[in-house]
Amino acid sequence: RYYSRKEANFNVDGDLSELLRLEQELWREDPGSVECTFGQVAFWSAQLLDDDWTARLWYDGDLLVGWGWLTGGTELEWEVRPSHRELLDEVLDWAEPREVLVRATHADAIERLRAHGLEHDPAAPWMRSSGGWDGGWLVGFSLAAWRRGGGRVRH
């Protein structure tokens, strides 16, 4: 159903602008559904000068329906349209992240993260709002793996 643009084709001018337009559109429609704000994406775009990131955009026809931005091979920032929530599974399969931020109010996303082996890490050093944000706290998730013979290992 979806097709994606390959990471090697990520065009700073065109693709970054599309990504930012999507964030603005989603914010106007329902700020509570947004995973990453326009400001966060603009801040992360400073990484474009580095070579430790990769990004992928997913389309349904000509409509941008989601994106993933993987930094350092472990930390995933992402967004999917609320109408395409199942796309998060494909983003997670592509990125195989060890760290992900998700809003505590996004139960569907949390369920999908858990299905991909990610668990809430209350000791994670995520930034939290100091006020003025009524959309819920961000919850840090990190990869949980199992050793042979049992026992969880944090990565």
In a nutshell, what does this entry contain?
The protein is built from four helices and eight strands; from the N terminus they run E-H-H-E-E-E-H-E-H-E-E-E. It is of the alpha+beta class and about 160 residues long.
Question: If you had to describe this structure to a student in words, what would you say it looks like?
Answer:
The chain has helices spanning 12-29, 38-44, 87-95, 107-115; strands at residues 3-5, 53-60, 63-71, 75-80, 99-103, 118-120, 138-146, 152-154. It is α+β, with helices and mostly antiparallel strands and 155 residues long. Strands 1, 2, 3, 4, 5, 6, 7 and 8 form an 8-stranded mixed beta sheet that branches. The chain is globular and about 35 Å long.
Based on CA atoms alone, the radius of gyration comes out at 15 Å
Question: What overall form do the CA principal axes indicate?
Answer: globular
Number of strand segments: 8
Structural class: alpha+beta
Low-pLDDT segments, ≥5 res: 126-138, 143-155
Q: Largest sheet, if any? A: 8 strands, mixed
Distance N terminus to C terminus? 33 Å
Average predicted confidence as pLDDT? 77
